[in-house]
Amino acid sequence: MRISTKGRYGLVIMIYLAREYNTGRFVSLKEISESEEISLKYLEKIMLNFKDTDYFISSRGSEGGYKLAHSPKEYNLKDIFEKLEGNIEIVSCLNEGVPCLKKNRCVSRILWKDINNLINDYLSTKTLEDLIKR
Amino acid sequence: MRISTKGRYGLVIMIYLAREYNTGRFVSLKEISESEEISLKYLEKIMLNFKDTDYFISSRGSEGGYKLAHSPKEYNLKDIFEKLEGNIEIVSCLNEGVPCLKKNRCVSRILWKDINNLINDYLSTKTLEDLIKR
DNA sequence: TGATTTCCTACCATTATGGTAGTAAAATAT
DNA sequence: ATATTTTACTACCATAATGGTAGGAAATCA
User: Which residue among B1, B7, B118 places its CB closest to the CB of A85?
Assistant: First the structure.
């Protein structure tokens, strides 16, 4: 039950860009890489997870980089993690339509559901703006 | 951010034994294996995670098996998961004494801490008895 | 033109997951 | 006594996920 570096570094990128949102400038991954001491190549790979989103405006070449396409308050943390980590249900059977029929296996399903709701409810109510305000 | 089968099947064993607690009989892993359709060998392996606990009374041989050493209400779910999954902190830096000094990495630490507390608080208040009552 | 940076595809080492197999030792049933 | 049952313990292994690295093409800017 761990958040991987994929999720953590992905959020680091988002926070970095959120903090620079007001400046309007493009921030390169190289800058984030050096500031946060995370390999550039790995950051590039993590960005691939956001490929099908409209999260960023990007520009290649010198003085290029990324900036947020929207205000930090438009970025929901639950959405961000779903892009980064895929399905974030803590047990796989939660999103299967058909309940399993094992005797005691699904007694605990209620427990998983509760915990899952706890996390999802929390993340759903938080945005990037909430994070950088603290 | 997934609970593995190790954690899930381990809980299944605990629930099974909790339900048989009043009978006082020994329940074999073979019985649980057949009832829950989980391989016997895998259940044996999962039991190794509880090796250093006083959770069970065991008996070998025919009519042998396991039974809970204490009443189901004495078994805290947080404790059980710590035995099964090891440290259940969702990010590793939470239990390091020294905070990391990276610029934005630890902005999110507050977030991880919050989620971690959410889960731990929930699990700490629940016992095996709560689970089998529902 | 040269440097910079995104964008994209491969590749790879290590670890965790999710098991299986085999055997010894203890306890019980016959 | 012996056969059976069951825990207890060790070793092994296939697959997937994690956490990266490497290389190059394409776009952009100074």
Answer: B1
Task: Report whether B91 contacts B55 (CB < 8 A).
Answer: no
The reply to whether A41 has its C-beta less than 7 Å from any atom of strand D is: yes
- Taking only the tens of pLDDT, chain B with its 134 residues reads 678 889 999 999 999 999 999 999 999 999 999 999 999 999 999 999 999 899 999 999 999 999 999 999 999 999 999 999 876 566 655 554 444 555 566 678 888 889 989 999 999 999 999 999 87
Give long-range contacts, CB 8 A cutoff, 24+ apart: A101-104: A102/B12, A102/B36, A102/B37, A103/B16, A103/B35, A103/B36, A104/B12, A104/B15, A104/B16, A104/B19, A104/B35, A104/B36
**Strand spans (E) along A1-134:** 56-59, 65-68
Rounded to two decimals, the pTM is 0.88
Adjacent-strand bridge partners of B76: B127
Task: Answer whether A104 sits within 8 Å of B36, measured CB to CB.
Answer: yes
Tell me how many residue pairs between chain A and chain B have CB atoms under 8 A apart.
105
Q: Which of B12, B91, B122 sits opposite A2 (nearest CB)?
A: B91
Q: Are A14 and A75 in contact (CB under 8 A)?
A: yes
Interchain pair B85, A112: CB under 8 A: no
Q: Which residue of A has its CA nearest to B127?
A: A111
